[in-house]
From TrEMBL, chain A:
This is Urease accessory UreF family protein. Keywords: Chaperone, Nickel insertion. Transmembrane segments: none annotated. PANTHER family: UREASE ACCESSORY PROTEIN F.
TrEMBL record, chain B:
Transmembrane segments: none annotated. Homodimer. UreD, UreF and UreG form a complex that acts as a GTP-hydrolysis-dependent molecular chaperone, activating the urease apoprotein by helping to assemble the nickel containing metallocenter of UreC. The UreE protein probably delivers the nickel. GTP binds at G18, P19, V20, G21, T22, G23, K24, S25. It is found in: Cytoplasm. This is Urease accessory protein UreG. Keywords: Chaperone, Cytoplasm, GTP-binding, Nickel insertion, Nucleotide-binding. The keyword GTP-binding applies.
Amino acid sequence: MTPSPDLLLMLLADARLPVAGHTQSAGLEPAVRDGLAAAHVPAYLRARLRTVTAVEAGVAVVARAHLLDGRPLAPVEAAWAARTPSAAMRRTSRGQAKALLRLAGRLWPDAPAVRAVLDTDAPSRPVALGAVAAACGLGAAELARLVGYDDVQTVAAAALKLLPLDPATSTGWVHDVLPDVEALARTVRDLDSPAAVPASGLPQIEAWAETHAVSARRLFSA
Amino acid sequence: MPDHTTPTPRALRLGVCGPVGTGKSSLIALLCRELAATLELGVVTNDIYTDEDARFLRSAGVLDADRIRAVETGACPHTAIRDDITANLMAVEELEADYAPLDVVLIESGGDNLTATFSPALVDVQVFVLDIAGGGDVARKGGPGIERADLLVVNKTDLAPYVGVDRDRMVADASAARSGRPVVALSRTDRGSVVELTTWMLAQLERHRAGALVPADPGPMAPHAHAHPHDHLHDHVHA
């Protein structure tokens, strides 16, 4: 029996999923170092959802569609790379993909989508997520919600390490942007071709990512 | 994907853990200095708030800088070596792939506390390091690493007279807490102790190559024969 999509989504969105999620701050660490305060974090979350996270969610949805139809992944990867101008962010994404695929190769070793992505050279995280969704039967909208929710929770969890906070406050931020996550999912759920992926960067986040990559004092990998 | 359930000719993975400041990086530098001429080595460090340890080792000049990789742990040094070892496994496998065939990969934990030990899924064998200047009673207090790591190193023994610690007494306490598992009283200035350490490591490498090395978990605060159950509460005191 196939597990329910709800349960699969819980599994994949759980911070306890062993994909080295504890090493990530979704760009919050260099932002805080540059003066971003706790009061700015909700705006930071929304800014990401409208820009870099929209790219990631869009690529994940298109990768899933390509994998389900047996279409090539190269144009999807190219669309992602073209919309991710920061080399540091591309490296981070590929590292996260590696961690995710290490797990996916164990959970769904025979899934053609997972095999196909494992056979490509240095895939991005959204393409790996697309493969996981294809392998376990997760729908496009659920996949997009997963990408948005995971990004928000990554920032919120890192905020507890970087900024002094009552955890109920950061959980409130997550709760309050859930409609934004849903709006993101609605925007990208029906995307089918790489060209349709939103081309929405956020230069300040990209610049912070580049600064962080050469910083000598880092709590988080990125 | 590597399958950890079948034997492979991969490098021996040696973990070095113990509280902050006990000399983990120096011990790794020492091993590299002693063995880099005869063995192919790689190092993975787990720093808590900096790549200080990786930079220290690179600047020590004991190993090609690219053979020393740092893993950031997001302030979760314990998680990175025990619960979710993904980032460390990736770093180890990348080193092994870039410099195949490696003989030994040394993995340094982020200095944490007395309860942090490596998952046997990450390392084949592990060393727990204590600083003699941390106090003669630390070995007696015990904890999974002190009691059940494959090797306990009581480090910086040359400092014993300056900090009022009886070296032999501390080693005897440690040996008693460890039910006979090996203890090395190490000082960089004591050549005999350095040879004792490298001899132990080379013996582990031989066991690994012979397929006779089965990684053992020092464990969380499991009940054991050498302390009363209520003592285990003390294991939770963070260094």
